[in-house]
Amino acid sequence: MIPDYKLKQGESFYDLKIDKFYNDNFSKELDKYLENDDILDLRAGFYEKFYVIKKPYKTLKFIKDGKVVSHFAKAYRGEILKIIAQNDIKTFDDFMNLELKNLKLEEIKEQKLKTEIVYSII
To answer: Dihedrals φ, ψ of 82, to 5°?
Structure first.
């Protein structure tokens, strides 16, 4: 029988560091898989250390009442993904032309390979 188990975020399993394991064993394949695609990174910050994106990409940040939304950001990322799928969005230009209900584009920040699109929740 396989016992019930649960690893919490950041927890190690014996000497195995999960983020290092993923980086060491999957990065090259992910690089190859993503080499010809645009990347909209919808991961939570915790998972960014599992794979470092090595080409230009975009990510989203949500602000409400002047503060960064962290707890409900997952729900907003999910809504964005749903809208992208429903509208068959294929390019960043198409994405940037979307009307997003309850979100207002505030700014676009470029930092090395990362372009952060900042929305305020209205």
So the answer is: -60, -45
Average pLDDT over residues 48-77: 92
Tell me the backbone φ, ψ of residue 56, rounded to 5 degrees. Answer: -60, 140
Beta-strand pair 40-41/57-64: parallel
Name, in order, each residue with C-beta under 8 angstroms of 72's C-beta and a sequence gap of 6 or more: 62
- Phi/psi at 109 (nearest 5 deg)? -110, 130
Cα pseudo-dihedral 28, 31, 33, 38, rounded to 10: 170
- Residue 46 pLDDT: 85
Q: Are 109 and 118 contacting, i.e. CB atoms less than 8 angstroms apart?
A: yes
